[in-house]
Amino acid sequence: MSMKTEKIEAKADEGAPVLGLRARGKERRRNRIKDAARDVFVERGYELATTREIAERAEVSLGTLFAYAPTKSELLLMIVNDDLEELRRDALVDVPDDMPLIDALIPLARQDMVYWSKYPEIARQARREIAGVLLGRAADPEAMRFASMKPKLLKHVTALIARKQATGQLTTKAPAELVADLWWAIYNQNLHNWLMVAKPNPRQGVAELRRLLTLAVQGLGATEHVEGTPRAKEKTPRKTPLKARKLA
After folding, report:
1. Is the overall model pTM greater than 0.85, yes or no?
2. What is the percent of the chain with per-residue pLDDT over 70, rounded to a whole number?
3. Are 39 and 57 contacting, i.e. CB atoms less than 8 angstroms apart?
4. Which residues contact 107 (CB under 8 A, 6 or more apart)?
5. Which residue, 4, 74, 103, 183, could crosslink 69 as a Cys pair with Cβ 3.0–4.6 Å?
6. Using an 8 Å Cβ cutoff, are 64 and 55 in contact?
7. CATH number where 181 lies
8. Which of 20-29, 60-69, 125-134, 168-177 has the lowest mean pLDDT?
């Protein structure tokens, strides 16, 4: 049994509702399957990993494995979903009212990057699987579960931004939902770029994200025309005096 499985079962013993004997057996099998799949994905890579090898390592039949995850993709996303839901359970909870917005958002990115840095290939493959779903591929339950994390996360970020606006810490009149969408665009693209590195370093990823968010918060100080605002009056070129034109 892995350390992760032991921690999960310890938590269940501490405060979770007592499960029946059959339910506890199903939970133990599910954890064995996840642990075996994670090990095989890391050791052999997602493409070379087979469900048969995972079933053998988890000491279950293929039929039992498919009862928990009918495809290799669903098995991968089941691991990621369980991990991220546990990791983000307390995200943006109890953020002090006087904490700057960027400082409040950075810990969420840091914990995500620390997790992904342990399993970068799993992270890349999970994002590829979801990209396929977003492009119209039929979605299975774990894929839908993964996709549902974004609106849940944005809901928490939107609430945080709205509180900052209400207290005057953010003076923008833009809707909190739009500001949250901007944060997501920056965070998601930064995460994508970071994962493309052979060995993603969480400290470097967080530092780059902070620079981008700081730029977004401070603004570009642009003077060109923006829809809804007047364009600065252009200066009329000064005419060359007639005498000067004759001499030219």
Report:
1. no
2. 79
3. yes
4. 91
5. 74
6. yes
7. 1.10.357
8. 125-134
